[in-house]
């Protein structure tokens, strides 16, 4: 079986293209879909088994494309026929560039094109390290595209709505343009083939078969990105695209070599779902050999396996299998018989930064929620599950608001747990304003052994980020050494909550002096004395609220970098600079310092400022003083 993935921005006709390719011979079999992720459609073409994976568009869904692209023999990037929309394709082009998976660019809906095909290719070239190679040029009637000229065979095809294109003569007025485009194509291909280069130098015309062979090699080695055009809605250009996939794309051996670091890879999970009354289902692509129920994979026995194919139930090389009762299989891994290895870094999801505290609407679901979230994460590695330290409630992190809504809907539909959400409060802190000294005597007598401890402490602020430091200057055994750790423990306990209700940080406590009683003193008494002394010192010194500042790295197409400066300023952040990405053409890494509480607003602002193409990752940088009324609180 041959497998390819179609990816691209929303509203470019990916699903229509997938349906048109799978329906060329009308032999589709049952589809496998995961809501909000994508659809796998097995079909036959020229007596061969195929499967097309149609991935949902949108930057939030891009994180699900890694496993499907990784296991595919080839990928098709579907874009609109508008050069101004090239920026929307940048994240998908970047994924394909990083993956090194053989890729074909398909310009869809050329019947409504608003730009010249060469302009579209040039705009997309900004985001591609490999040369984008036009394999076709359009036939036009006025401004409308009515067909194509294949630059290899030098045949012209006129589009027919709902039917295969008709072979026509190349119009005389097209000859010069066709010759120019063909010469450019041949010169580009000749960079990768000495025999073709020699023919061009000697002014010989290579045979179409020779050109197709070079084109096949350059696609399989991902040396070039061939570009085809058409309109899936009307069935135009679909046959040419499918023939290119059939004749030029590699078989499963290429995917196996790409993923099998130790030469033992057997299968890769590409999609997963939780199905009522059935449990976890995992779609596998078998990279090598055959798999049957009860076989070992990843060190455990497989459960039930169902062959996915349009032609027969017999295993074929590179076939798809639907596994049930195989809960040890997870997305993001490559499995051999005895173990597993993670997929390459490019195939892993972006960091989930859209965070919400979630609480079940019904108290009876409280105990079930953590287990349901873990099962949800097993089928969606783009999720992250944390805990809000302040309340102990679960924190669900997703790729964005749409991903959050879909995840919560799955939680209710698959597990019957309805939840409410709220923003995660920023991790505010306090610190003291000035050094103070404070004495405290703990005395209690209520019958039996009494309690006595007397301490004098000094509390002083420290440099930001220094944490807590304790020392003692006690002389003459005023406080016996065995009680000093109890004073420290009490001081630490007192720092749990400051005047504004937040933990107190970056302070030093020094035990200066004290008194004890031979009978009534104890660890407990000195702990209470230390705690109350520090609490009183905090009240006397006064505190200021500290807000966490994050260092944010935004991955953004270069054309949008300048527009992020006012975005960061508007969120009370500071621009640290930006530079071209090390290896991703057309991308910048934009660095900024930003209050933690602004991260949700940043995600929304990025969507507007970059047309939904940018994403970010963040790490704690430092705390800074802020008036409580100005702190960004959820």
Structure commentary:
This protein is of the alpha+beta class and 634 residues long. It folds into five domains: 2-250, P-loop containing nucleotide triphosphate hydrolases (Rossmann fold, 3-Layer(aba) Sandwich); 260-347, Translation factors (Elongation Factor Tu (Ef-tu), domain 3, Beta Barrel); 354-422, Elongation Factor G (Translational Gtpase), domain 3 (Alpha-Beta Plaits), CATH 3.30.70; 434-541, Ribosomal Protein S5, domain 2 (2-Layer Sandwich), CATH 3.30.230.10; 545-630, Alpha-Beta Plaits (2-Layer Sandwich). The chain has 15 helices and 33 strands. The strands form eight sheets. The protein has an eight-stranded mixed β-sheet with strand order 2-3-4-1-5-6-12-7, sandwiched between helices. Strands 25, 30, 31, 32 and 33 form a five-stranded antiparallel β-sheet that branches. Strands 8-9-10-11 form a four-stranded antiparallel β-sheet. α12 crosses α13.
Provide a quick synopsis of the model.
This protein has 634 residues and is of the alpha+beta class. It is built from 15 helices and 33 strands.
Essential attributes:
634 residues, alpha+beta, Elongation Factor Tu (Ef-tu), domain 3, Alpha-Beta Plaits, 5 domains, eight-stranded mixed beta sheet, five-stranded antiparallel beta sheet, 15 helices
Describe the protein's topology.
Layout: E1 2-7, H1 14-22, E2 32-34, E3 38-45, E4 48-55, H2 65-71, E5 74-80, H3 90-99, E6 103-108, H4 117-125, E7 131-134, E8 136-141, E9 144-150, E10 155-160, E11 163-168, H5 175-190, H6 194-201, H7 208-220, E12 224-229, H8 238-248, H9 252-259, E13 267-275, E14 279-286, E15 296-297, E16 300-301, E17 304-308, E18 320-324, E19 333-335, E20 340-342, E21 354-360, H10 366-379, E22 384-387, E23 394-398, H11 401-415, E24 419-423, E25 429-432, E26 436-444, E27 451-461, E28 468-472, H12 484-494, E29 507-515, H13 523-541, E30 543-557, H14 564-570, E31 574-580, E32 587-595, H15 599-609, E33 615-625
Parallel strand pairs: 1-4, 1-5, 5-6, 6-12, 7-12, 28-29
Antiparallel strand pairs: 2-3, 3-4, 8-9, 9-10, 10-11, 13-14, 14-18, 15-16, 17-18, 19-20, 21-23, 21-24, 22-23, 25-30, 26-27, 27-29, 30-32, 30-33, 31-32
Helix pairs in contact: 5-6, 12-13
